[in-house]
Amino acid sequence: MKKEIANWGNYPSMESDERLFSYLSDAQQYIKTSDHFIPRGNGRCYGDASLAPVTLNTTRFDKILSFDIPNGIFECESGITLDQVLDVIVPKGWFLPVTPGTKFITVGGAVASDVHGKNHHVDGCFSHHVEEMDLLLADGRLITCSPNEETDLFEATCGGMGLTGLITRVRFRLKKIGTSYIRQRQIKAANLEEILRLFDEYKDYTYSVAWIDCLKKGKAFGRSILILGEHATLSDLNQRQKKEPLQLPGKKQINFPFNLPSWILNSFTVKAFNFLYYGKNLKKTIDNVVNYEPFFYPLDAILHWHRGYGKKGFIQYQFVVPMESRQGLIEILQKISEKGLGSFLAVLKVFGPQESLIGFPMKGYTLALDFPVRDGLFDFLDELDKIVLQYGGRLYMSKDARMKPGILQGSYRHLPRFLSIIEKYDPKGKIRSVQSDRLSLTH
C-alpha cells in the first residue's frame, strides 16, 4: 500500500510501498518479490533509518510465543510493542531489562537500534539481554542467531538498523520486580560541574538521568535536575499502593491534535520553559514513590507530542563522548548556548563500558537534544559533529537524519567488519534504507 511515511521526528518524509504481514510465509513472499526493502516497526526512531521505497511493516506480526514466568524469559514476534509486553509481564512481577524513553517501539526495533535506557551503566543495552533471535535474510532463509550461534550475524543485527535482515522472533531475559512503582529522588544541580559530580556520587543507583538547561550562561551554565530511581519494594509503598503492588498504571493520554506553528519555538519560549521546569522543584532534593509510567515514559502521556515542533519536523541530536573527554560536552553546550538554539528536551546520561560491533554506547557522557528543522540548523550540527569526532565520540544512528558518511566512518571503528558481515548475508544489497544509502553503508 503506497503511503507517505516519516519517523518520529517528521523529517524526512517520503512515499513508500508499505507491506504489512501477519504470518511468516507472507513476509518470505514479500522478500522474494521485492528488489529492495527495509524492515520497519512502529516508526519511533527519529531519523531515516526505517525509510525506503518499500518497507516491510512488522506491527501486525505481534504474537507472544512464550513466557516462562518462574525464570523471567519472554519470547515474541518482532512487531509487538514494549507497552504490550509490559501489560503482560508487570502483573507477574517482571519488568523490561532495558527500556528507552518510549514504550511504543517494537521489540524488533529495540534490537535493531540496540536501545539503551537510564540504567546502561548497570545493565547495558537491550541486546545484552537477548538470548536468541530469528532473522529472515535477503534470500528468504530463516536463521537463528545468538551470542553463541551465528555470532557475527547476531552482533551485526544488534544496532545494525535492520540491514542484516528482518528480525522475526526474539527471546530475552526480564528483570524481577516486587512492585510496579519506582522510588524516585530528584536533585537540583546549580551548574554543569555539580551535575557531573552528582552523577559520580550517585553512580550506584540503577537508574539515573538529568534534564539540563542548555541556554544558561555564567555561573548557572548547565544547571540541571538529576532524576534517580530504584524499583520500589513493598516496604516503600503506602497502604493504598500495597493493596495492588503490581498494578498497571492508567492509560489516560492527552492528544496533541495539530502541528504548532514553527514561530512558537524560539529561544524565548525555550528559556521560559527551562525557567519553569527548573523552578518547579522548590526543594534541593525531593524523594517520592511514583508508578513506572511517569518515571520511564513521561512523554508517552502526550499522544503525538512531536507535533509540537511544527510541520517541518525536528532533529534529535544524540552524541556520546568518552568520560575523559568531558571538555567536548562543555564545548558543545557552550556552542548551543551562544547560538541560542536551545532544546526543550535536553537529556544527559552516563554510559557504562560497552564494546560492541556497531552499538552506540561507550563509557562516557551522552546528551540528546531536540532541534526544530529550520534554516541554518544542519550547518550548525555539522559544527557539533566535528567537536564530537575531535573528542573521540560518535552519534546515534537511530536518531540521525543528516550526518555525513565521514563522521560515521571516523567514529565507529568496527564499521569495516560490520559492512563485511552485511555483504556476506546480503551480497546483492537488497536490504537498504534512505539512511544506509546516505551514509554509504549500501550502494
| Largest beta sheet: strand ordering | 16-12-14-13-19-20-18-21
CATH class of the largest domain: Alpha Beta
Helix fraction, binned, reads: 25-40%
**Main beta sheet: strand number and arrangement?**
8 strands, antiparallel
Q: How would you explain this protein's 3D organization?
A:
The chain folds into 2 domains: 67-177, Uridine Diphospho-n-acetylenolpyruvylglucosamine Reductase, domain 3 (2-Layer Sandwich); 181-408, Alpha-Beta Plaits, CATH 3.30.70. The protein is 26% helix and 26% strand. It has 14 helices and 21 strands. An 8-stranded antiparallel β-sheet has the order 16-12-14-13-19-20-18-21. It has a 5-stranded antiparallel β-sheet with strand order 5-6-10-8-9. The radius of gyration is 21 Å and the shape is globular. The mean pLDDT is 92.
Could you outline the blueprint of secondary structure elements for this entry?
Blueprint: E1 2-6, E2 13-20, H1 24-33, E3 38-40, E4 54-57, E5 64-68, E6 73-77, H2 82-89, E7 94-95, H3 107-112, H4 120-123, E8 130-136, E9 142-145, H5 151-157, E10 166-173, E11 175-176, E12 181-189, H6 192-201, E13 207-212, E14 224-231, H7 239-243, E15 254-255, H8 267-279, E16 285-291, H9 292-296, E17 302-303, E18 314-322, H10 326-339, E19 346-351, E20 364-372, H11 377-390, E21 394-395, H12 405-409, H13 415-425, H14 434-438
Features:
single chain; 443 residues; alpha+beta; Uridine Diphospho-n-acetylenolpyruvylglucosamine Reductase, domain 3; Alpha-Beta Plaits; 2 domains; eight-stranded antiparallel beta sheet; five-stranded antiparallel beta sheet; 21 strands
